[in-house]
# Entry
Amino acid sequence: MKKISNAPETLVTDELQGFVKLHSDKVRLIEGTTCVARRIPKEKGKVKLVIGNGAGHEPAVIGWVGKGMFDLNVVGDVFTAPSGDKIYQGIEAIDDGSPILLMVQNHAGDVLNANYAYSKAKKKGIDIYKVIFYDDIASAPKEFMEDRRGIGGMYFYAKIVGAMAEAGASAEECISMFEAVRDNTRTYGVAFSACTHPATGMEMFGYLKDNDLIEPGMGVHGEGSGNHCVPMPKAAELAEMTGNVLLEDKPYHANDNLLVVVNGAGSTTCMEMNIFYNEFERFLTKKQINVVGGCAGNYLTTQELAGLSVSLCSVNQTMLDLWNAPCCCAILTK
Amino acid sequence: MKKISNAPETLVTDELQGFVKLHSDKVRLIEGTTCVARRIPKEKGKVKLVIGNGAGHEPAVIGWVGKGMFDLNVVGDVFTAPSGDKIYQGIEAIDDGSPILLMVQNHAGDVLNANYAYSKAKKKGIDIYKVIFYDDIASAPKEFMEDRRGIGGMYFYAKIVGAMAEAGASAEECISMFEAVRDNTRTYGVAFSACTHPATGMEMFGYLKDNDLIEPGMGVHGEGSGNHCVPMPKAAELAEMTGNVLLEDKPYHANDNLLVVVNGAGSTTCMEMNIFYNEFERFLTKKQINVVGGCAGNYLTTQELAGLSVSLCSVNQTMLDLWNAPCCCAILTK
# Structure
């Protein structure tokens, strides 16, 4: 395996030490844990946003910790949710009596451990709330919306709800906004290549290697789409294919105002993401749907996997203002 | 080939269209060209920073165009310097009588075409200046410093000289600062993997595929190190190896204040770069060298090549203040 590493056992701690050295103005590592917290805590009384997730997807989620985004990210082992106790430990470390909103991406391990941490915090008298997000349309049909996985749409929740919390909204207001954003968000992904697990050195998605096939609908660990591979289309066709699937699931309408996040899976080149974004914006424009904001980058990755997901969120003016509000984290500073 | 593309002929124009859509608050495309310019021009009279380079290395250099960095980036075909006429055309388009500083990375095609554009602009009465940068210690011995290639150290020149130009320094002051930064900068790179040319679909660096070898000293197109491959070391050893080579070339001293840029070659994971940075910072700390600023990311890439380069620059307080000065471009906003 040709990945920079000292040993599988120290991957996450080594990484987090490096990350906080690089971004010491924005974040800190909570001593003796794998919890990344805001360098300067929010004013007491404001809602704090917390999330736990497995490592291996960087720069997410550690890169979204900072002013106007997450207050705390509890990091697990590679592709492994942090234990409930670890999540609780992080929550306890930042608890100052302010409301805490635990955001949970819908993956079995994340949900189980978040539930444990939530219950424990509740029992300890912490003012805690919990929301679950799911946006991946490939992972379950519309009728089972709540079974869908939480993936790239996280950017919307983190930014919009984060800005609202920063501005001093109550936990109820944050939850209500979160639910509105979740209702308006859809994500669809496509994978192109193999990648390597950084701890085991094992190849993941080997069936995508040395051929011209891509896999539509694949999630961030290769979950669940049933390997329905298709030949690689041209950029414009790929935009149309993903766009049509998204609009079939949620019929965004003419004159709707949409945010677009093109999330690279890891080794998708900047050139490709720019080309794709150009075609995807054209696709929406043809449908008379307005793109009012967008970004493209390797944010929530699966190591050096190639591929991307597109996340859409229809927004009103309040949501758009929150999307554009100042923030300061490793991935985004406005 | 599994890269998002419509056709080899439209790679660069498609990409640039997408890029300016994504960053329309920061940049614009000059009509009918492949020139990316600042959205809002600098105040008249301030030095404008211009650079030309081949495409395929994104997010650099287009991602460094914006307030406090480059004013104009003239983009050529993939891995091909833009022609002298194209560079001149871009310069003419932004010329308002302010001094123009043409920064040239030391690669044969870039230098030839920049010289042509410079001469033509001179003849037309444009107030133009030219500097060449070279920082890659693997490409020529110390005695032939000026033959070295210009690579990842560009980040220092763009940021520090860009901030100075933004603050209203004269062309002479900018050039003098540029030369000081160049004298203080060294870069050394290591490549790990193969990648694919996005226009031809041909594999580049195939000798790095399916083995445990890495190539120290490789440049951004695979130039000139003679394929002296070595087995992949552990993270700490890799930091020590690259650090020793750099310090042998320029003996940075105890108590020196250094900026460190870890530049990923494209598919180097964020996890790896954080781990490497952690070890590299430790290496410097052991030598009692101070790290006063640093960043890590896939900035100046070679498509989805894996690997990285480390650029070091020793700075005084003035340089450090310029490094930390506000800026607003796609790669960095402060």
Residues 185-323 of chain B form a domain with the Hypothetical Protein Tm841; Chain: A;domain 3 fold (CATH 3.30.1180.20). Chain B touches chain A through 58 residues (CB under 8 Å). The two ends of chain B are 38 Å apart (CA to CA). The longest strand of chain B covers residues 48-55.
